[in-house]
Structures are given as C-alpha cells and as structure tokens.
Amino acid sequence: MLTGRGRSLLAGGVLLYLAGGITGSRSLYLLSASSLALILLAVGSVFLARRKITLTREIVTPRVFAGEEVEEELVVENPGRVPVSSLLLVEEGPSELGGGISARLPPVPPGGRRKGRVKRKARRRGRFVLGPVRAVLSDPFRLVQAGKLLALPLEVLVLPRVERLEGLPGSLPLAGGSSEGARPGHASQEFYAVRDWVPGEGLRRVHWPSVAKTAKLMVREEEMPALQRAAIVLETRVSRLFGVLGEDHASGFEGLVEAAASACWHLGRLGFGLILATPAGVLPPFPQGIRGAVALLQTLALLEPREKGSLVRCLSALEGRASSGLLLALLASLGADELRAMTRLGSRAAWCGAVLLEGEGSGPGGHEEAEKELAASGWRVVRARAGVGFQGTWKKLLGVGYPSRFR
C-alpha cells in the first residue's frame, strides 16, 4: 500500500499530467510519467522482496525465571534477488513480558541475512505467548510499504522466582554423594538407567560407555535411598489463604510458590528426588537431581490456587512416600484433623520443617497452639510474613549454624 509520501507523489504526478494537458508542455508530461514510474518500481521491489523474505527465531535463554530476562534471537534471511531496503519487525507480546515490541533492521542484500536479539523482562511465572511476528517492508524512498506474517506465536514458560539457598539439616547426607565415601544403599558402580545430561548438572555421573555409543552426554540415573527423598507440601486452598492473609492472599500464594520453587531447586541440585503434594493430591515422584527439579518448577509455573482439596488425604497419601526422608510443609493454617495428620507424618520423616504464613487475618498468636503441637512431634516450625524472602526462613528452619561441609 502507498504511504503518505507515496500518495503525495501520486497526486503530484496526476496534477502534473493535467497541467501538461492544459499548457501543452511536454516537460510536465515527462515529470508526471517519471513520478508514476517511480511508484511502480517501488511497488514491484517491495512485493518481490516480500515474497522471499523468511524469519527464524528461538528463545536463547534455556530456563526463564520470573524477574529475569527472556532473550529472543531473530534471524531474517533474503534468498531472493531483490534487496530489502527497509525492514521493520513487529512482535506482539503480553504485558507480563513487556508487551509488544518493534525493531528496525539494516537493509538485507540478496542472499544475505541479518540477526537481532530482543530482551524482555519476565514479570511473573506462567505460560505466555509471544507473537506473531510481522514484517513491514518498504522501498528506499518510503513510497510503498507491505506487511507479511513471518512467524507464528511462540509459547514461553516462565518458571517461579528462585532464591539461592544453602545447607541441609545436619541429620541428612548430601544426596548427590560426597568425597566422604560411597552413597549408602548400593555400590558406587550400580545404576538402573541412563539419561541425557541436563545443562547445569555436574559431570561426576557421566556414563562414558553410553557417551561412546550415542555421541551424546549421558548420565547415570542412580537408585535413591530413602534419605535422599524430599517431599514438599504446598497449600493451594483459597479459603485458607484468605483466612490468614485477607485480600492479600494472591501475593501470599505467590510467595509460597516461590518458597517451594527455591527449596526444590536447591534440593534437586544436591541430587534429591522430589515429591510435590497439595490438597488436590500427591503428584507422581519427579526424577532425581536437577532434571526432576526442572520438571517440578515447570509444574509450579502453572499452579493456580483452588478451593477444592483435602490436606488430610494429601498427608495420608504421603505417609508411605515421604518416610525416612526430608519433609517441608508450606501452609497457611491448620485444623484439628490436619494437625493430627501432620503429627503422624512428622514421626515418619528423617527431618521435617513447616512454614506457617502470618498476615493481618491471622491475629496475634494465631499459630501458637499448632506450633507447640508440631514442635512436640518433631517438626521444626517457623512463622513467616507474606512477602518476606524465603532465604531467611530457610536458615531458621535449619537452625543456628550449618554442618561444616556447607560453610
């Protein structure tokens, strides 16, 4: 379509033609014909370039956490014989990723390519759609422009915000093993499966015979002793969150999700096998190590609060799975039946810690009775305000000081 400049030139060409007819001036006819010819050349060049131009794009950041940047690489190629003089890329996007953007690229010669990178700030967790990407092409004189759809929408999964945690309860060994000796429960060379290496993992468990066969990095998926399991119980019921936090229950829930994400990322990097339980039910165990941590973070990225569910049934289902391992509960409030179930479950775990949310709706001393009963049955209980980072809460759960290997 013609731009404002192109329409002005076309109108001028028509007026020159009419003026030439009135005055009989041949020069005015030539100027009019030149104006119209320039417009036709512009139309032809733009639409020929539009037919051939292509775009490939990918998310460069392997894992995107809330609060971090999403980096996207765009590669424009021009396999045709007509140069692309002016190219504007326009990509739609949600407000959670900074909204829509536009970027003007340098001219693309025939057979050439141009690269560009776009950075967006991920404001919150969830699944979002980027795109589609459209190109707006124009001629060197900006007389004509035409649009083209270059790429379909692309989904981006933003993981919950994660805080850096350190240490483990002193009663638990490093799940990934240490230099102090072989891992309990099996010989150091035993394994039951191999899997692809995940970026971020160490190379200690690389299975070199499989690497030689497949030409890919493969690691051992080792058996998991009971002490190397970690279960995270997460409150998702709106009524309990609202009862403690009032109108601020949504941000309180996000804080619980980020706490769960921080704990699972920390424990997964240490080699623990992970289990996530909510009042809606207990999810199947995630793989051991960082691969399981990434899978659990992807689940947490899409987790939403809901009203239905029973914490008592959830805790009962965990009794067989979380025995002799690490247990972390992130809760809002506890009823009498739930408190009895927590007490029963805590006696089966090697270590158990509970975080109880406090807010304006909880009132002074709202958790005192629950805290006393849980502490008497072996739970380590910490009360935390909504909006406060989990790093300090984790240190309180561990107690004063760390085992020497974590200092």
Give the helices and strands, then pairings.
Elements: H1 4-23, H2 26-52, E1 54-59, E2 64-65, E3 69-78, E4 86-91, E5 101-105, E6 112-121, E7 126-130, E8 133-138, E9 145-151, E10 154-159, E11 193-196, H3 208-214, E12 218-221, E13 229-234, H4 238-245, H5 249-269, E14 273-278, E15 281-282, H6 290-301, H7 311-318, E16 326-331, H8 336-346, E17 351-358, H9 368-376, E18 380-385, H10 390-398
Parallel strand pairs: 2-10, 13-14, 13-16, 16-17, 17-18
Antiparallel strand pairs: 1-3, 3-6, 4-5, 4-8, 7-10, 8-9, 11-12, 14-15
Helix pairs in contact: 1-2, 4-5, 5-6, 7-8
Note down, in words, how this protein is organized.
It is a single chain. With 407 residues, the protein is α/β, with parallel strands linked by helices. Helix content is 32%, strand content 26%. The chain contains 10 helices and 18 strands. The protein has a 6-stranded mixed β-sheet, sandwiched between helices. It has a 4-stranded antiparallel β-sheet with strand order 5-4-8-9. Strands 1-3-6 form a 3-stranded antiparallel β-sheet, with no helix packed on it. β8 and β9 form a beta hairpin.
Mean model confidence by pLDDT: 83
The main pleated sheet reads as: 6 strands, mixed
Low-confidence segments, given as residue ranges, are 174-192, 400-407
- Placed side by side, the strands forming the largest sheet appear as 15-14-13-16-17-18
Query: What structural category do the secondary elements indicate?
Result: alpha/beta
Radius of gyration: 31 Å
Using DSSP, what is the number of strands? 18
Helix segment tally = 10
Beta-strand portion reads 25-35%
Determine the N-to-C terminus distance: 67 Å
Shape: elongated
Order of helices and strands: HHEEEEEEEEEEEHEEHHEEHHEHEHEH
